[in-house]
Amino acid sequence: MRLHRLDITAFGPFGAAQTVDFDELSAAGLFLLHGPTGAGKTSVLDAVCYALYGSVPGARQSGQGLTLRSDHAAVGTRTEVRLELTLAGRRLEITRQPPWERPKRRGSGTTLDKAQTWLREYDAVAGSWKDLSRSHQEIGEEITQLLGMSREQFCQVVLLPQGDFARFLRADAEARGKLLGRLFDTHRFAEVEKRLAERRRVTETQVREGDAALLADAHRMQQEAGGAMELPELAPGEPGLAEAVLSAAAVARSTAREELAVAHCRLSAAESAQAATERALSDVREVARLQQRFAQARQRATLLQERADAHRGAQARMERARKAEAVAPALELREAAEAEHRRAAGAEARARAQVPATFAEAGAAGLAAAARRAAEELGGLESARRAEHRLTELTAERTGLDRQERADDDVLAEAESWLGEWETTRAGLQGRIEAAQEAATRAEQLAVQREPAQKRLRAARLRDQLAGDTEEAQKRALVSEKQAIQARADWLDLKEQRLNGIAAELAANLQDGEPCAVCGATEHPAPARKIAGHVDREAEERALAAYQSAEERHAQDERRLGVAREALAAATAEAGNAPTEQLARESEELERQYAEARSGASGLHAANEQLRHAEQERERRTAVRQEAAVRAASRVGHRERLDREKAMLEKELAHARGGAGSVAARAAQLERQVALLTDAADTARTAEDTAQRLKATDARLADAAFRAGFDTPQAAAAALLDDAAYRELQRRLDAWQSEEAAVRAVLAEADTAAAAQQPPADVTSAERTAAVAGRRLRDAASVRDAAARRCTELDRLSARAATGVRRLAPLREEYDRVARLAGLAAGTSADNERKMRLESYVLAGRLEQVAAAATVRLQRMSSGRYTLVHSDDRAGRGRSGLGLHVVDAWTGRERDTATLSGGETFFASLALALGLADVVTDEAGGVRLDTLFIDEGFGSLDDQTLDEVLDVLDSLRERDRSVGIVSHVADLRRRIHAQLEIVKGRSGSAVRQRGQ
């Protein structure tokens, strides 16, 4: 890294624009940055750091960059830092503007502008600068990747703060560890310690949980064994717990099987006793059943004897009912004839009540003659009925003429009214037609404007969508770029590890007597061995393939981002910069006007049709008015003829009606009289016929009853039974016979009679004996089942415990292994003699490298007197690993760096800083650092030591480096000719530069 030019505007103490030409200063190799206290020497270094990383070192970075602005700057001048430098062979220019509160362009007050960043690269072929990025994140990642260092490492390596290294010399191991951890990024080793400790806690928890589950199973087995099992007095995690539990389980299983065998024997004896009592109980119950059956049969026989008289009466009743069945048809005929006669007499009475009183005593013949006379009179009214019908027609026709006259008057009035408004109607329709034609013209004009407006709106919406897609593509490109950077770092890390262990990889192919590929020797007394975690070629190639794949994904994301940006630019060119909402409103307004015009134009055809219909209506109404006038003239003669015919018919009908209101009323009276007289004559004849049939059926019924053996027809009717009574009586007779046969059969059974001769059976005693035997059997079965369940459960729990012990064995081995590694990495293990943590061990290796690199320069600065060495000794009760001592060649003794004087502390810390810069540079991938800054401390040196220190610094030019010394020691201004002076003033600081 080489600095070329630095431009500062309104930054820190610099109110105006200032320029630092590092190319001119670096020509001498060593230059001095001096000025009074508070002038801004450190601000120049802050500007370099801010340009590279977007922030300044330490506590000076606050307020999101707002505090970086100079209080001496003009109101309208924006803070800006521009740095031109060469990184990894690329000439770059970085411009950063922190956020600032500027005056509002309109009105009063201020507004906050966001921070901005630009990165450009010089194209030597084209001879011009080309833009690379304006993204804070992209630029930060690019610079960090090119430098290979974080901001903290850069501030320690390039901007060497001597005060920090003096404190580093005097610090304890913990403070040194924090600084070295930040510089060398050894947090991954601390993470390994944490992961091991966490894994130890997890495995310990799992082992304890497994032992707890094993003890839980042991307690369950103890409960099942009923106190026959003793548990080991061991806690979860203690050794020997599994073996003790399995031994106790085996004893419990053996005891349970013995108890099961005893229970089986007892159950067999109880089953035999219970079977014998069951057979005895069955025999007693059978005797009791037969005795009860014989007693019940005797009771039923006695009951039949008591009901014998009732049975004989029922038999006699059934016999009389069967005889009465021969008389039943005659009885039914007599009842039917009597019912028919009653109906006929009733109908006759009702019919005679309807006829006039003069016919009340007339017989059937007299009623028929009266009906014939009324019918003859009814036939003589037919001509009068036709005359009355014609009179009704004349009246209706005269009414129709009057109605036509009123209708024609209405038609004439309506036609006159409509024709009077014709001109107004026609003018209104003509106006509507003209308005519709104008709307159609306007709709055609708006239709031409619709498509461009809609196309622009679609382009605007596509522009908004593409803006989101572009932002998403940019995010994906950033993510893939990070992944590619990380993959490259992983690949380089594995490559470095492989190179560090390449000796072991080459040694793996050595054979006795074969020359070594490196030194050519044929003897290999101590070939290198592969260590744990050795990286081979396959691992490196996989990491390289992963890096190339990540780079390809990043390139694809960049191509997609370019396509998205091109599409966004095309959509923006078509849509313009107008907001989508504005274009949408304009398009909606245009659509509304177009719809209104279309709506207005759509009424043109309807208006033309209405005008045509109106003209047709005018012609129709004119013709209707003429036709109504003609009909009015013809109605006058017709009305006179109707009046003459009506008078003649009314005179004729007055004679035919008699006392009725009309001919029809008189005809209705006669028709009703004819119907009533005819009905009365028919019902009278029917009543006479039914009376004759009733007398004949009475004679036949008396003859049938006598032949059946009954004195009177009434006695035969009383002996008859209906169907329900007949079935019930038959059922009773059948039941008597069945019961009598069943009783006789039971009393005739031999075993039943034999049981009746025995003493009464004692069923209760036999059941009690059987119940006792059954209870003993159940108790024995329960004992046997409990013993079987105990054996089964103990077998299951023992099997589960054995499975748990087998499953826990690998976990316990893993716990022992992880606990040993975690104790070793944390420095708490007895195997770690120096109690050194893993991170401290790695940092100790780095500190050894730093001490070796610093000793080269320290010996020159101290004329060969002092040498820095790393110490693993423990300090007090603390842990070892990060001790730093100085060896005094004059005394030959090793002492603590805290015993050095002020000047010795300065050049020792300077040597340490330069050594640390070399080591960190190599750690960062060998990035060349061509410009360094050293801050303060030279005032504590005498002239001889100062010369030696300057010689060491001047020797850095051998590697084409330039070193800037920040100091206000006056003697340095005489010794160093290339100077950058910071001048302090009321209007802010200024920069004065002097070359060689």
Describe this structure in a few short sentences:
The chain has 996 residues and is of the alpha+beta class. Helices cover 68% and strands 10% of the residues. Strands 2-1-4-5-8-9 form a six-stranded antiparallel β-sheet. A six-stranded mixed β-sheet has the order 10-14-15-3-16-17, sandwiched between helices.
Note down, in words, how this protein is organized.
With 996 residues, the chain is of the alpha+beta class. Helices cover 68% and strands 10% of the residues. It contains 26 helices and 17 strands. A six-stranded antiparallel beta sheet has the order 2-1-4-5-8-9. Strands 10-14-15-3-16-17 form a six-stranded mixed beta sheet, sandwiched between helices. The protein has a three-stranded antiparallel beta sheet with strand order 11-12-13. Strand 6 (100-103) and strand 7 (110-113) form a beta hairpin. It is flat and about 180 Å long. The two termini are 22 Å apart. The mean pLDDT is 77.
